[in-house]
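Friendly challenge for the regulars: who can give me the structure tokens for this chain first? No prize, just bragging rights.
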Amino acid sequence: MRDKILNNLATFIAKKPWWSALILLIVTVIMGAMASQLKLTTSFTNLLPEDNPMVDEFDMIIEEYNGASSMLIVAEGEPEKLDEFAEAAVPKIEELTQWVSRVDYKMPKEFIAEHGLMLMKSGDLKNNIELFESPNLDEFLTNLNNSLEKEYIQSEDKITGQEQEQGAIRFLAGIQSWLSIFNGSLSDYTDSAGEKAAEAILYGDEYYRSWDNRMMILQILPTFTMFDIESSIASTDSIEKIVHDIGGEIGVRAGLTGTVPLARDEMVSIQNDSMVITMIALVGILVLFIVAFRMLVSPILAIITLIIGVVWALGIAWPLVGTLNLMTSMMAVVLVGLGIDFSVHIISTFTEMRHKGDDVTTALKATFVKSGPGIITGGLTTASAFLTMLVARTEGMKELGLTLGVGILMTMLAAMLILPNLLIIRERIKSRFGKKLRVKPRDVSYQKMGVFASWLSKNWKLGIYCYC
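First reply, four minutes later:
Bragging rights claimed.
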């Protein structure tokens, strides 16, 4: 039954190669369209069991709290240029409403004015009452000095953490700004000077800076999570262009960091690495194929078949998993290494039959009957080995086993259908152009290896001794 099916398939391909090619082309186009729908995610939670409560809680945090998915703009330069950079960049970034919820780059003065006292400790409230109990300048400076002594010298609560240290630096920067405004008012008084001085002593520096004022941080809250890869890539590219353009004009070094740009960078790295590794594997296989078989066209046809088989595998992966994770994103490289084996059997047997003098149809039938069962058995056993991973608890292992198991079957089908079709079309083209393209069939057998195998069979005791 099996040999009959293989014979009929070989006969159809040999008799109607162009119809076969048309059907296979349509299938490949459909599979390619399906493969283009595949998404790629860098989320490590997709690798873990779906019923894990920690995974559910993590996903909930990412979805509910926008701060978990953030973008940070880090700018470095002169303090005045940093202010100019922030005021120029923020309006343009806020125009990207499809990706940007808001940009935090200044102290929220209105919020602090309404709720600041409610957030203070009781000791700080008492200290501030004494600080602002007199509006006179000389008494205010005396109270300010006393407040600093109570806060940082006499108090048992010293500066123990980074947050307290940054608060102290911000307050001292505010005092410095207050003094600068006060000195400026002595020579050039303006109506707004008093308000600016009061805000400086109350809020400190309105921007988020480093202690030396040469670095500034702007936080962007996106409208999506870091696992929305398409939005992460598009938004990061757009904002990065704005930041680099404005930074270059003003003379400020600026760049992006945070979970969203990191997701973009991971995605680009995975795509580039997988493509480069796959191309290296294909070129390496092609070179080995050419050297081993001492021919050029057949190895190229095998590589074309392998590429189409990988496209089929990616196409069928779309309805199966929909999204490629960190593990399944490298499936193409694995399929290239395993799928080429099927083409090796077909080309070697077909070339051998042609070398013996068989016509194209007879050679193809002999190839299917001789190598077909081994190819099918090898494909099924390899696919079964990968499909056993479906019993794993982790979702990443399940998807890896499913995509590779089905992918092996797709590359096997491609080798059984596409490669024979290409070989027949090549023979038809050669016969049509006559002697100009007539090539003597090559003997791809390894006679020395056969002699060695024959010698080893006669001296099997020596072989066992060497193995032991």
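The two ends are 43 Å apart (CA to CA). Confidence is low (pLDDT under 50) at residues 435-439. Your move, everyone else.
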